[in-house]
Amino acid sequence: ACVLCVDDEAWFGSVLWALDAFAWLVFSAVFFGILRNPRVYGADETILMDDPELCALRRKLIVDAAETLHKHRLIRFNSRTQRLDPTNLGRMACRYYVDYETASLFRQDVELGVDEDRVILRLLGLAKEFASLKVRDDEESELSNLRRSAICRVPIVGDFDAPEAKVQTLVQAALAQAPIKAFSLCADSNYVQANIGRLCRALFVTSLSQGDASSAEKILEWTKAVERGLWPTSHVLMHFCNPNCFDPDVQKRRQPY
């Protein structure tokens, strides 16, 4: 939580030095969380008796968060001057509310090139935001049927029991507007559809900042596809079959027709 807060404040320009972040942390929810449960942040209850304002712990949290963001290139942190400077990657992560590990993953893979559909889909499935989507026992048969059917046009990359394979399957099922029977799988599908659009946008901006036009064009096609709920290679008249296809409301665009 502290890492995300430091990245946001550095991007907005309200925190330019570690000393500013040290003072700002008192007014954040993180500080009150430390007061209520210090053990979660690596401290003992006795620290409140020795240091009521948690100066040492706040300083440690800020420096650790800044070094973590600097390692993943979301900010530039000078350990000597204690200055915090935002980067383009950090701005992208704040704008689309992307986890710092996901932003770093996008940057690393974009540098290697992501001009294939299966690579893009796998990269989106590896996002930290989808790490909690475990494959349950009652979902295995339905996921297997979806993968074997014509719904999945792009081959699934990775372990079928891993979250990234599940995300790849659910994204393609959403593009094909395939019905899903399992209740838990429906909930996970809604979660994926609610977040995949902004992650595609974040990946597109990352690719664009690297100057890779071919990858950016391919990712933009996927971005439009997941936002409209249709395959990019679908016939142009398919866009007119659903009267809500271009509705600003995302939920209306996903309503069956």
UniProtKB/TrEMBL annotation:
For molecular function, the Gene Ontology terms on record are:
3'-5' DNA helicase activity; hydrolase activity
Q: A Pfam family name for this chain?
A: Sec63
Q: Does the keyword Transmembrane apply?
A: yes
Membrane-spanning residues: 15-35
According to the entry, every stretch annotated as the SEC63 domain falls at 86-256
Keywords carried by this UniProt record = Membrane, Transmembrane, Transmembrane helix
Write out the GO biological process terms.
Answer: meiotic cell cycle
Q: Which PANTHER family match?
A: HELICASE FOR MEIOSIS 1, HFM1, ATP DEPENDENT DNA HELICASE HOMOLOG
**What is the protein name for this chain?**
Putative activating signal cointegrator 1 complex subunit 3
Record organism: Toxoplasma gondii MAS
